[in-house]
TrEMBL record:
<feature type="domain" description="EamA">
    <location>
        <begin position="7"/>
        <end position="140"/>
    </location>
</feature>
<feature type="transmembrane region" description="Helical">
    <location>
        <begin position="68"/>
        <end position="86"/>
    </location>
</feature>
<dbReference type="GO" id="GO:0005886">
    <property type="term" value="C:plasma membrane"/>
</dbReference>
<comment type="similarity">
    <text>Belongs to the EamA transporter family.</text>
</comment>
<dbReference type="InterPro" id="IPR000620">
    <property type="entry name" value="EamA_dom"/>
</dbReference>
<feature type="transmembrane region" description="Helical">
    <location>
        <begin position="7"/>
        <end position="29"/>
    </location>
</feature>
<feature type="transmembrane region" description="Helical">
    <location>
        <begin position="123"/>
        <end position="141"/>
    </location>
</feature>
<feature type="transmembrane region" description="Helical">
    <location>
        <begin position="275"/>
        <end position="294"/>
    </location>
</feature>
<feature type="transmembrane region" description="Helical">
    <location>
        <begin position="179"/>
        <end position="199"/>
    </location>
</feature>
<keyword id="KW-0812">Transmembrane</keyword>
<feature type="transmembrane region" description="Helical">
    <location>
        <begin position="98"/>
        <end position="116"/>
    </location>
</feature>
<feature type="transmembrane region" description="Helical">
    <location>
        <begin position="35"/>
        <end position="56"/>
    </location>
</feature>
<protein>
    <submittedName>
        <fullName>DMT family transporter</fullName>
    </submittedName>
</protein>
<feature type="transmembrane region" description="Helical">
    <location>
        <begin position="219"/>
        <end position="237"/>
    </location>
</feature>
<feature type="transmembrane region" description="Helical">
    <location>
        <begin position="249"/>
        <end position="269"/>
    </location>
</feature>
<feature type="transmembrane region" description="Helical">
    <location>
        <begin position="153"/>
        <end position="172"/>
    </location>
</feature>
<dbReference type="InterPro" id="IPR037185">
    <property type="entry name" value="EmrE-like"/>
</dbReference>
Amino acid sequence: MKRDWIVYVTLLFVAFVWGASFIVVQAAVQTLPPLAFNAVRFIGSALLFLGVLLFSRVKLRERLSPKLAVHGIILGICLFAAYAFQTVGLLHTTTTNTGFITGISVVLVPFFSVMLAQQKLALPTWIAAVLALVGLYLLTFNGQAFQWNYGDMLVLLCAVCFALHIAFTGIYASLHDTIALVTIQLTTVGVLATISSLLLEPLQSPANFIQSILDPQVLFALIVSIGLSTALAFWAQTWCQKHISADRVALIFATEPVFAAITGIAFAGERLGALAVWGCLCIFCSMIVAEWKWTRRQQVQ
């Protein structure tokens, strides 16, 4: 039981880091293009883990295997696709729509868990997922009508990829060494982001690229992103998913926009309406509903 609470607090901290860093990253990509930013972010994080692997007491051969490489690449492709669809989608839709549609992954994860891992999910899990989705709607739209557009379709694909990433991590995490799996995953994202940046974004000279990275806002965002919101966050998620189901991870990650809203209030002078506050409460209640039912079921068993 004590380990369960460590897992919950760790995942909540990850959601907090992602939500709180949104403002920092949003400012940085005004100087350094998004795909280039993600390339530096993920390659930097991968190099951190590669250093840990090389200097670890456990022999590298004992950590690596062909199956590990395949699983790590699959996770990396899902994660890269999620970020890519989200980035391109933002060019054609609003940040409000993006936040809500990305949150649809909360409902998609249980479906993928049933299909991929053949898990049998209890009714409270579905109720909690729907409650979290309602909370996300109230938080992001604050009672306003939802208007669908082309960018929303791209962000929906982003939600599918994020959901697949969580579901696949739930399957693969217990099969491999955490650091090795995360290293391959982050390397895959970094390589794909680099290729995409070179193909899709305006080319910069090496001098301009270095100048962009050394910009104070960009440099600060990269330090936060490489260390906290990428290296630590994905290591923590992978380790936690050895001990918790994918659907419950998705519910906890639904708090990310809540923390983003709190950060916006504290540092950007934003305000939350009454419905948005109710949305935050719905998200937190969804986690309570899912966990309370799960605890009772475990006690009966």
